[in-house]
């Protein structure tokens, strides 16, 4: 967003960041094995290729370094108030009044880029606070705790849990994995880029565009489509997951434990090259008995067994419905975002909400967070916000917000498309909202791009003077 503002010649913007560095997700998550699911070439900004990616799927630390580099190169840091938490934003008399930990400030336009998988979710297990050793959420990894000598209890087998097992399995004294639901694992290989390739991409920068184009096409055509509509992509991904399990886990008892009841992709698809190999290493145990409680020495499961542990890791995900919150956003007439979203978060094309003029959200409700690369998605959403910011800047319009009718119609169209998707085939996932329908984008990546290419004036309540 900042780069696009700069490219449009707008320098009068402020970014509030409650932490002390850029990077968001990739600053906060530093757990062992953290890797992006999307090929590095396509998890890059279209305007800033990176010839130096080390792997097909980039490790978290490398992504963090990339975002830091872009912020430095583009001179964005001077615009950022680090350590400034925005606690409330109130629309008042045509302006947005922000209250931050540093005081109050007023702006013409508010853009929220507060992330989507950001607020850690902890399980409600009796005795959680009584555990005697170190315990932390995967997104708050304490690197002062040594790992090789520990008996580690890992709660959760989603994308994060699987990546941690893939990395730590066989390298620590013990790894006890508490699995509530088995997950399908897509066998995504992660080869290293050779020095020759990296050298060639640095020497001839235009070659990077080829990688962006190729991996973009692959992600959009295979993973962008497989969950949303039946077809060969869905059959291919599902078959790859099933064969991966069958060929990789020979022990029938362990295979039974690791076999999900639902279809591949019904939940967020886990990608990992080494999970099954690591889970079969000595010292790794998968526990499927439900957790009864936590006590100082470890975890007690429903069968009464005490699993003694030295370290407890919660790979239990995030509050995916927090969106902009806990920041309090108050729109026209005192309407709060919490009130507007009482039945679940919804927006016009993920970006704007009726009653909240001159507010644009990046990664708002129903953004395609389940099966697309979020870097190009963020670029499309920022371009759309920029389009309106240009109109506001040139005094073509004074305030803009989507109409109730257009927002309702858009959300109803989305609901009608959901039955086609794999996300409604019976699993219980964090994708599902209050109404039992996925809070995801049910169409292709190309449709997302098209919907955000240019605003339709008729869908907006536009005030001119
Ligand atoms: C473990 C993990 C793995 C992921 N893997 C992938 C993947 O493989 N592919 C993919 O496409 N996506 C992945 N994602 C999603 C990832 O979050 C997005 O790709 C992307 O990083 C989101 O960027 P963002 O800037 O929108 O949000 P974030 O990176 O979450 O950044 C939001 C920022 O806003 C700040 N902030 C929030 N509220 C306030 C406030 N009130 N005041 C001040 N500052 C505030 C936060 O401190 C944070 O720095 C993953 C997410 C996680 C957690």
Keywords:
465 residues; alpha/beta; 5-stranded parallel beta sheet; 4-stranded mixed beta sheet; 13 helices; globular; binds flavin-adenine dinucleotide
Distance between the termini: 26 Å
The number of helical elements comes to 13
Note the beta-strand portion. Answer: 15-25%
Q: What spatial order of strands do you see in the largest sheet?
A: 7-16-8-9-12
Low-pLDDT segments: none
Total strand segments: 20
Report the biggest beta sheet as strand number plus sense, adding barrel if it closes: 5 strands, parallel
Query: Level of helix content?
Result: 25-40%
Task: Indicate the structural class.
Answer: alpha/beta
Q: What is the molecular shape?
A: globular
- Give the cofactors and ligands: flavin-adenine dinucleotide
The pLDDT mean sits at: 96
Rg computed from alpha carbons, rounded to a whole number of angstroms? 23 Å
């Amino acid at each position: 967003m900042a780069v696009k503002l700069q490219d449009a010649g707008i320098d009068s913007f402020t970014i509030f960041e409650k932490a002390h560095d850029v990077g968001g997700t990739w600053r906060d998550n530093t757990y062992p094995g953290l890797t992006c699911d999307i090929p590095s070439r396509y998890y890059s900004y279209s305007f800033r290729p990176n010839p130096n990616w080390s792997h097909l799927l980039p490790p978290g630390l490398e992504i963090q370094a990339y975002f830091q580099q872009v912020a430095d190169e583009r001179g964005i840091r001077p615009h950022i108030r680090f350590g400034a938490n925005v606690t409330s934003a109130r629309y008042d008399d045509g302006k947005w009044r922000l209250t931050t930990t540093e005081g109050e400030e007023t702006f013409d336009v508010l853009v929220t880029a507060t992330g989507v998988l950001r607020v850690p979710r902890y399980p409600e297990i009796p005795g959680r606070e009584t555990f005697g050793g170190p315990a932390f959420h995967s997104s708050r990894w304490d690197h002062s705790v040594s790992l090789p000598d520990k008996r580690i209890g890992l709660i959760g087998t989603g994308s994060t849990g699987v990546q941690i097992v893939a990395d730590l399995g066989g390298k620590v004294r013990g790894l006890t994995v508490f699995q509530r639901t088995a997950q399908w694992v897509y066998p995504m290989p992660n080869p290293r880029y050779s020095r020759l390739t990296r050298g060639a991409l640095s020497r001839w920068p235009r070659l990077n565009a080829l990688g962006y184009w190729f991996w973009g096409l692959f992600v959009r055509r295979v993973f962008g489509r497989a969950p949303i509509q039946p077809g060969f992509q869905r059959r291919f991904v599902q078959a790859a997951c099933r064969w991966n399990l069958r060929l990789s886990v020979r022990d029938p008892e362990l295979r039974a434990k690791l076999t999900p009841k639902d279809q591949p992709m019904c939940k967020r698809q886990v990608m990992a090259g080494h999970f099954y190999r690591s889970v079969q290493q000595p010292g790794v145990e998968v526990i499927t008995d439900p957790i009864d409680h936590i006590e100082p020495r470890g975890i007690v499961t429903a069968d009464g067994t005490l699993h003694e542990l030295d370290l407890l890791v919660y790979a239990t995900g995030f509050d995916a419905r927090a969106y902009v919150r806990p920041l309090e956003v108050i729109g026209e007439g005192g309407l709060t975002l919490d009130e507007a979203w009482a039945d679940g978060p919804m927006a016009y094309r993920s970006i704007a909400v009726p009653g909240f003029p001159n507010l644009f959200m990046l990664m708002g409700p129903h953004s395609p967070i389940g099966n697309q690369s979020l870097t190009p998605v963020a670029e499309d959403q920022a371009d759309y916000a920029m389009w309106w910011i240009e109109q506001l800047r040139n005094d073509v319009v004074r305030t803009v917000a989507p109409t109730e009718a257009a927002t309702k119609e858009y959300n109803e169209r989305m609901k009608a498309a959901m039955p086609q998707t794999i996300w409604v085939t019976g699993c219980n996932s964090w994708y599902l909202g209050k109404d039992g329908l996925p809070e995801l984008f049910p169409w292709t990546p190309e449709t997302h791009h098209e919907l955000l290419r240019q605003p339709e004036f008729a869908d907006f309540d536009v005030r001119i003077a």
